Structure prediction request, 660 residues.
Amino acid sequence: MTTGIAVLALATVVGAQAYTFSTNLTIGSTGPDVVALQTALIAGGYSIPSIQSGAASKGYFGAQTEAAVQAYQTAHGIPSTGFVGPLTRGSLNSGVATTMSSSGTSSTCPVGYTCTATAPVSTQTCPVGYTCTANTGTTGTVTTGTVTAPTGITTPGISGTLSVSSSGSIGVGATVNPGQSVDIAGFKLQAGPSDMQVNTITADFSVRPWLFFTDFSLVNQTTGQVLVPATPISQSNFTEITASQDYRYTLSGLNFVVPHGQTVNVVLHGDTVSSTGQSAQFINIIAASVRSVDGTGVVDTENLTSTTCTSGNSSASACGSVYFGATLKANLIFSIDSSSPLAQVIQTQTGATTNSIPLAIYDVQAQNSAATLQSLVMNIGVNGTVNAAPATPTAVYSTIQLTAGGLTYYGTVANTSGESGTVTFTNMNIPLALLQNVPLKIVGSVVSGINAVTSTTSIATATAGIVGGVDTSFNTPTVQGNGTIVSSVITYSTNSAITIAPGAVTAGASTVQNNSTVAQQYTYTFTVSAGASSLYLSANPAWAVATSTSPFVQGTASASTTAMTQVLAVGNSLSGDTNTGVGTSASGSYVIPSNSSRTFTVSGTISNATNATNVSGAILAINGIYYSTSPTITSNTGASMAEYQSGLTSLQNVPINLSH
Prediction:
């Protein structure tokens, strides 16, 4: 039917007019010029078997048409190239008159032409002496007796099946580059006892085809018939079968017939985009299906499964594959940021979690293409003991976070082997602009009571699977495998932040007896260093410094009852101090800002006024320092005091003599 309509519409619709060829034609050309060319060649006795037999419709310039053109050129003294150029067009235009009336139902066809009815073939009468052939590709049905079969099937009432396999007529895995055309897949269709009318073909791709191709077409390679002309494609033409993996393209409404006992090869053809950021990779058809109807109207569906084909993009698929050779996908390079913390000692708390400790700052840069970082696996190692057992990452860290672009992501800490573990960050959305370093700040929180434990983090760039993401062309980025990027060593300690230096002890009067009111003076200086968080020291010396309650006799356990008074003093006040009387025992606290140190002095007097006997060789000791992470301090015990620095007695004993 399509041939007749094309002749009516494109040759001479009304009246007898000559068709004028104005376009050069060659293999692969389609359209009305090709229809008119094939009509003229057949009329002149130049054979195009597939069209004359009815197996193919006019409109596609294939090998048979080329042979007919060469025969025509030889007969008319034109170079036999098979190319319809100016010489051949001039010859055709001087002697071709393809005339028909506007109705093919009652007029006589021109000699050598096949008239195709505009009404169903079963009710249309052909002109006397001519044979009307239903063109392949028509829709509708033909009823014979009680059996209804699709139009074009010559075996009504006979059941059949269609076998489907790879045709082997194209080069599987052929390389294609941007702006080129390529045969993607070839399917061999073989009909059994009945003609089979093919209605639908589906092809499942392992990648997003619209990123690589501008259009698809389907050609009957056996007859040269264009079943589906080049049709633009976009994402809307595909169905996502598996999330971010498989994409189905459906060609429906085909309605071409595979004659019984014969084989037809059909080829899926594509034109690639002219420019793309896609990486070199295989574009595979990993499954396909063909739906057809037999002479009884029964539908048959044949599948090429993933087992028959292949899955993934690592090698060519047996069901159809091309190798796309193009630019590289995004490549990520990791490095340590210049502002990443150096080796340091972090003061940890004994009564609460030490929060927001900077562990490392890594830089990541995208090359070749911008990308988005979606996941990251980082290594973490610790060394030391926790509760008398070897330390593990989960025993040391309560949380580890990654901050980038103003957003914070929490990682999952896991132990792997001994004191080693991993931190996995997922569900991230960190944009990586092309050739720009993006800092990834790693921050940890350490559980209470961690002491004498060291820790490092690292990113093993040579390890597969440490990075998840996608570039602007939906490729998974590669990672520059240059080894392992390691951060500095961090030491956690509950007592390393405080150092105390004994001060001078001033002698009293020359003679001190029992019940004497003569006192001796003492002075200690000590330094408190804050780590990642600020610390506070009470301005009340009784809540800041722990001393022996009274001097005790060296070498004995007996205690004296000597009276003591003491004052805590510091230099200039700092912003953040809450003490209103610097240098006195006023209430409030002193601040030690994060990552800084501050020196304090505790001084006082001690006398033997309440002791009934002389005390010789007594020792005064500072047992510890109280400090807090809160500026509000109301006691030297309980919840108000976050920390107590103990274990200082052996270092801070200062002998004093209260008798002479």
